[in-house]
Design a protein that fits this description.
324 residues; alpha/beta; eight-stranded mixed beta sheet; 10 helices; elongated; binds uridine-5'-diphosphate; binds magnesium ion
């Protein structure tokens, strides 16, 4: 039975053949430069249909510190992270993107912080290389998110970070399906430290998360950590009802004191109907957001399914189970 590797690096992979050679090389270099740490890299293949799994398998064959976990199809970034966290064997687990936007060279600093007593180490972006609409969207999200979250959360931190076994176990226990990882990591608490880093441009290949997925991820973040949209709806409802009530009194008083009111215009009527209809539709939409999430939670479908766990294939040592 191999002794537990103290540090596991979890990396979700979806069609990353373009960056994989550099990723594997840079990780290996970091591992080699820090031989006192027992490293394990757990690459979670999220249903790639390019040569990613081949490349990882070949590398894992040469270097036993690397292991491949294959999901049965593309479940998305959050599920891939969850699968990695559930199967990581380390006493600490580092999470990072595959595209080298999170430089692996920062990992030793996180490990140092962990050894000094931090149970969660968050890598905070000092700067960001991305630009264009994606960047704009992300900035907008973080600005909004910090305002609306019912729970204090720091901006400028994404997936990149380290968690102690205790925090990982806590996170693995959370049953919810709509997972916004940085939010949940803050939510579980524990002694937290920060390191700062410069977020790089993607080293090669195209972003694998579609804009739609990112948007979905952002709504998950807002709706899972904030009741503000529901509350805003109530405020808007109260305001509109108050305006309607005032208008009614206004016209009634004019009628009573005998000022002839002109026949109300068709336009006014249509405007009011449309306006109220709009407000109601928004309201239904917001309720739907929460309802859909409740439905997701109630279904209790597994977050991910494994096709194969390289570490448990016949002939290799069985992995100790870290989940229930
Ligand atoms: N990824 C994944 N499943 C997906 C989409 C992306 O596992 O369905 C992985 C991807 O391989 C990368 C990380 O998630 O390691 C972040 O993806 P990407 O760089 O495309 O997104 P962004 O930088 O825009 O957040
Ligand atoms: Mg990226």
């Amino acid at each position: 039975m191999p002794s537990l590797p103290p540090v596991t690096v979890v990396i979700p992979i979806f069609n990353e053949e373009a960056v994989l050679p550099e990723l594997l090389a840079r990780l290996t270099a970091v591992f080699d430069a820090n031989p006192t740490v027992q490293w394990e890299a757990l690459l979670v293949d999220d249903g790639s249909h390019d040569r990613s799994t081949e490349l990882i398998r070949a590398h894992a064959g040469r270097d036993p510190r690397f292991a491949l976990l294959e999901l049965s199809r593309n479940f998305g970034f959050q599920a891939a992270i969850a699968a990695g966290l559930a199967h990581a064997r380390g006493q600490a687990v580092v999470t990072m993107d595959a595209d080298l936007q999170d430089p692996p060279e920062c990992i030793p600093e996180m490990v140092t912080r962990w050894r000094e007593g931090a149970e969660v180490v968050r890598a905070v972006r000092r700067s960001r290389q991305e630009s264009g609409p994606r960047r704009l969207g992300m900035d907008l999200f973080h600005a909004t998110f910090n305002r609306v979250s019912d729970f204090p959360m720091e901006s400028n931190a994404g997936t990149f970070g380290l968690m102690d076994r205790a925090a990982v176990d806590a996170l693995n226990q959370l049953p919810e399906r709509n997972r916004y990882f940085p939010g949940l990591r803050s939510w579980v608490g524990f002694q937290t430290a920060e390191i700062s880093y410069d977020r790089q441009e993607r080293a090669a290949g195209q972003p694998q998360q579609t804009f739609r997925r990112l948007l979905r991820y952002a709504t998950d973040g807002v709706f899972s950590f904030s009741y503000l949209p529901l509350r805003l709806l109530t405020y808007a409802g109260i305001l509109i009802a108050f305006l309607g009530f005032s208008a009614a009194i206004f016209y009634a008083v004019r009628r009573i004191i005998g000022i002839e009111t002109a026949p109300t215009g068709y336009t006014t009527l249509v405007t009011i109907v449309l306006f109220l209809g709009g407000v109601q539709l928004i309201g239904i939409g917001v309720l739907g957001e929460y309802l859909g999430r409740i439905y997701d939670e109630v279904k209790r479908r597994p977050l991910f399914l494994l096709r194969r766990n390289q570490r448990t294939r016949p002939g290799s040592a069985p992995a100790p189970r870290v989940t229930e």
